[in-house]
DNA sequence: GTCTATAACCGGATAGAC
DNA sequence: GTCTATCCGGTTATAGAC
């Protein structure tokens, strides 16, 4: 992997991402972003006009990652097994790679819920395929009758929440054990998958 | 329930809670809190010296609610059924009553993780009783072998996350259905309990 | 205890030299 | 494109009258 030297714009984006995630839109300082990028504060305005515009840019990029990933999973899933497997592994894979995304979204979900929901509605993201799979499997009597909305929320909750609660899991729950947070997260996909399968399938499948 | 007229300090706390929750520490403005309380901005400083101190006061009170509730559940639980039942119902009950708590904590979890973890460690909160119950039930072969850390995280995730994701659940997932977010949350306890029981128990208990 | 006025500071944004 | 210097609005915090 050859690393081309980062140009200023890239440096700014990377620095902005880091600072905005940690501090949120309101807590972030343009000076802090400039320092992080190792450039002059004025350059931020030269490249992105305003703090708001810089934030929007960074935020939509992050949010888009989530949308595209979810969409790709929903699009290819054939049955509940593959859907669950794909969804959990990809979701957690993405969050491990870019753990900032969760904080980012939750940080801003209250500040500007309308914008976020708008971005979701404008995306092609469509859970109806998942709904259909659940309905089919239920008709085949492979799975217990589950409310599809609660089921989706369950899956997402189990994947996302640990990243949000990282400081508590790390500093309190796992404190004094020999398990690191990274190890915990590494175990998560199989833990979630077996948990959900047991909850879902009428016949034990393990 | 006789309502004694609120004194200024109480008015401030209530207003501060509302504003801090909505905007976070950084986004909140002392003027905004004063307006919300219907008092003069200087009075905030008269009663609480600084924005930081006011915030700390409001935050620890909210956080304490969570700690005490969790603790009381852990303390009384006898077996896994009662623990699950108590935990889910009380947790969601608390969050319905004070939905701001989740946002509050998540909002600040990154801003100051050390402080939050410190507060937890200083509390008497102790999950070891829950660990013991899980181990006992596993020995009795009533439940599948589960990792206790993942199990706790699962329970909390399923309870808390929906409140965090409210705007998305309301504005996207349930959009176009005739289910309101409140109805969704009302269904949650029994949904979670049956989901977790199915995942957990070797014999089907419904 | 409550108010008005103002100090002191900070941070986003711009002007203009290089 | 990049830097220095500066403006200007907004925000916390205090002083002091009532």
Largest interface: A-B, 56 and 55 residues
* Structural shape of chain A: globular
What is the strand content of chain A? Answer: under 5%
Quote the distance from N terminus to C terminus of chain A: 40 Å
Stated plainly, the CATH topology of the largest domain in chain A is called Tetracycline Repressor, domain 2
Pairing-aware structural class of the strands and helices of chain A? mainly alpha
Give the CATH superfamily of the largest domain in chain A. Tetracycline Repressor, domain 2
Oligomer: homodimer
Mean pLDDT of chain A: 91
Please provide the count of β strands of chain A: 0
**Uncertain runs of chain A:** none
Number of helices of chain A: 11
Number of self-contained structural domains of chain A: 2
Q: Radius of gyration of chain A over alpha carbons?
A: 20 Å
């Amino acid at each position: 992997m050859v690393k081309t030297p980062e140009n200023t714009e890239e440096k700014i984006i990377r620095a902005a991402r880091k600072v905005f995630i940690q501090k949120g839109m309101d807590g972030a300082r343009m000076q802090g972003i400039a320092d992080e990028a190792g450039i002059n504060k004025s350059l931020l305005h030269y490249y992105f006009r305003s703090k708001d515009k810089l934030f929007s840019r960074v935020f939509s990029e992050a949010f888009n990652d989530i949308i595209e990933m979810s969409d790709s999973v929903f699009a290819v899933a054939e049955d509940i097994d593959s859907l669950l497997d794909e969804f959990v592994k990809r979701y957690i894979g993405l969050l491990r790679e870019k753990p900032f995304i969760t904080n980012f979204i939750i940080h801003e979900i209250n500040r500007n819920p309308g914008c976020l929901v708008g971005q979701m509605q404008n995306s092609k993201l469509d859970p109806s395929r998942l709904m259909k799979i659940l309905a089919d499997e239920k008709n085949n009597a492979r799975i217990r009758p589950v409310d599809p909305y609660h089921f989706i929320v369950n899956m997402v909750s189990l994947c996302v929440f640990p990243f949000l609660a990282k400081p508590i899991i790390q500093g309190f729950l796992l404190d004094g054990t020999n398990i690191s947070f990274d190890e915990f997260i590494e175990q998560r996909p199989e833990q979630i998958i077996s948990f959900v399968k047991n909850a879902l399938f009428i016949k034990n499948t393990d």
